[in-house]
Design a protein that fits this description.
The protein is mostly beta strands and 489 residues long. The chain has helices spanning 87-95, 240-244, 318-321, 481-484, and strands at 22-24, 28-32, 40-47, 65-73, 76-83, 124-128, 131-135, 142-144, 151-154, 171-173, 178-184, 193-199, 205-212, 223-224, 228-233, 236-238, 250-252, 258-264, 271-275, 279-280, 285-288, 292-300, 323-331, 346-360, 372-378, 393-397, 404-408, 413-421, 433-440, 445-452, 462-466, 473-479. Strands 20, 21, 22, 23, 24, 25, 26 and 27 form an 8-stranded antiparallel β-sheet that branches. Strands 1-5-4-3-32 form a 5-stranded antiparallel β-sheet. The protein has a 5-stranded antiparallel β-sheet with strand order 2-31-30-29-28, with no helix packed on it. It binds 4-hydroxy-3-methoxybenzaldehyde and fe (iii) ion (FE).
Length: 489
């Protein structure tokens, strides 16, 4: 009956479970001063398994969502962390053990939980229509109380969500506050169905369109511009037969093409632009000029996820998995599918450094922009000699000039996703703060850095100390007091 986590890489180092819910009023400031004018809350979610898995070689995509909040007011920062009480979390807490099996494989579950949502709410936490929503791409989001982090319950846009799933990477159009989102595998695991939605600023779904992808795959992030949405179909392919046989949902298929599905905003028809095999996951930003769509995303030769096997059995190769920020350009008036060996969209590399977790100043989301941040695993010629894998630098980039600044996290330190925080006043694109959690491996603590967005390489404006390790960090967002005041019931 002992609680014992497996001696496996998925539960070691920065993936070792923490499982701690708590509150610290007034985090310790170890350097600098928190600007008194900084008012708002940074919410982020990490994946932290509440119970040991009963399947072998489990990984953090399959772990419970732990939401953390950092609320800034008058130079103080209050911290709170809380698990999302998904139906799955509640059932396993009651049983004091895992009841759900392998990642997105319901055929491996304990029969007692058949029919219960497998959602973990572990990938993103965002504010829209007066609600704080924690989400994972295999299910509907879960509404969270923005002050206590108590779980309100599953949110299905008042029942209007016809898809079984909703992306963890919705975009908010700064023009009108619309939430632009989609569900993939919308009719169940390994299906090819995609449902595209827009909800107005109040959180009511006002547009819905359905279509089928060329093949079933992980559609983790996507591109939204003023006039188009683009669905990247990347060959982390899924198969229901494999799932039923107890195998992984995804495998990397190096023989399959990439497709970019372009749909006009609030339109219905999809056009598929085909390109040669490669990998991409997160999108920094995207924009269009009415005809050409530009999408900035790190692009690698192969999948960055070591836990999804290569279809050929080839071992994971970090070199091939490393991705460099690149720009994909689609001529929406050009021919969509040029057939074998050809590519129907252009690719131009923006940097030679390897990285992921790109973000932008979301006031410029969907628009031509001058500021992004990204975490780097490697800068040619600057690799530290401490042998620690993972993201070691933060970089800021102006995609127009290519100008880049970098900040090394330090020895024994890795970085989690950074976010841009606008100051109270209207400022130019990229003028404000960048917030970033830094894992201090030697002490098992975490620092929250407040950086000047225009000089991320300068000493931090302030460093706050969280005296615990915060594992499995994924995505987060900044919510202003004005937004919190629009709370829906
Ligand atoms: C990602 C994370 C997920 C997932 C699928 O970063 C993709 C990508 C935390 O869960 O289920
Ligand atoms: Fe993501």
């Amino acid at each position: 009956m002992s609680v014992r986590f497996p001696d496996e890489p998925g539960f070691a180092g920065r993936f070792a479970p923490m499982r701690l819910e708590g509150e610290i009023r007034g985090l310790e400031v170890t350097q600098g001063e928190v600007p008194a004018s900084l008012r708002g809350t940074f919410y982020r979610v990490g994946a932290d398994p509440a119970w040991p898995p009963f399947v072998a070689r489990d990984f953090y995509f399959n772990a419970d969502g732990m939401v953390a909040m950092f609320r800034f007011e008058n130079g103080y920062c209050d911290f709170r962390s809380r698990y999302v009480r998904t139906p799955r979390f509640a059932a396993e807490r009651e049983a004091r053990r895992s009841l759900f099996g392998a990642y997105r494989n319901p055929y491996t579950d304990d029969p007692s939980v058949a029919g219960l949502s497998r959602g973990l709410a572990n990938t993103n936490v965002y504010w829209h229509g007066g609600r704080l929503l924690a989400s994972k791409e295999d299910s509907a989001p879960v509404q969270i109380d923005p002050d206590t982090l108590d779980t309100v319950g599953e949110f299905t846009w008042d029942g209007d969500l016809s898809s079984q799933t909703a992306t963890a990477h919705p975009k908010i159009d700064p023009r009108d506050g619309s939430l632009v989102f989609f569900g993939y595998m919308a009719k169940g695991e390994a299906t090819r169905d995609i449902a595209y939605y827009e909800a107005d600023a109040t959180g009511r779904i006002v547009h819905e369109a359905w279509f089928e992808a060329p093949y079933s795959s992980m559609v983790h992030d996507w591109a939204v511009t003023e006039n188009f949405v683009v669905f990247p179909i990347i060959p982390l392919t899924a198969s229901l037969e494999r799932l039923k046989a107890g195998g992984p949902l995804y495998v990397w298929d190096g023989s399959e093409d990439v497709y970019l599905g372009v749909v006009p905003r609030r339109g219905t028809g999809v056009r598929w632009y085909r390109g040669t095999n490669r990998f991409a996951s997160h999108i920094m930003n995207a924009f269009d000029d009415g005809r050409y769509v530009h999408i900035d995303t790190p692009v690698g030769a192969k999948s960055a996820f070591p836990w999804f096997p290569d279809i050929t059995g080839a071992p994971f190769d970090p070199e091939q998995a490393s991705a460099q920020l690149s720009r994909w350009t689609i001529d929406t008036q050009g021919p969509p599918d040029l057939g074998d060996e050809a590519t129907a969209f252009a690719e131009q590399r923006l940097t030679d450094c390897s990285g992921e977790f790109p973000r932008t100043d979301d006031r410029w989301a969907t628009k031509g922009y001058r500021f992004g941040v990204i975490n780097l695993t490697d800068i040619p010629g600057q690799r530290p000699d401490d042998g620690l894998p993972g993201f070691r630098w933060l970089a800021s980039i102006d995609p127009v000039t290519g100008a880049m600044r970098t900040r090394f996290a330090g020895r024994d330190s890795t970085v989690q996703e950074a976010i841009f925080v606008p100051p109270e006043a209207d400022t130019p694109n990229g003028h404000g703060y960048v917030l970033q959690l830094v894992d201090r491996h030697a002490t098992g603590t975490t620092d929250l850095l407040i950086l000047d967005a225009q000089q991320i390489d300068a000493p931090p404006v302030a460093t706050l100390k969280i005296p615990i390790r915060m594992p499995g960090g994924l995505h987060g967002n900044w919510v202003t007091p004005q937004q919190l005041a629009t709370r829906a019931g």
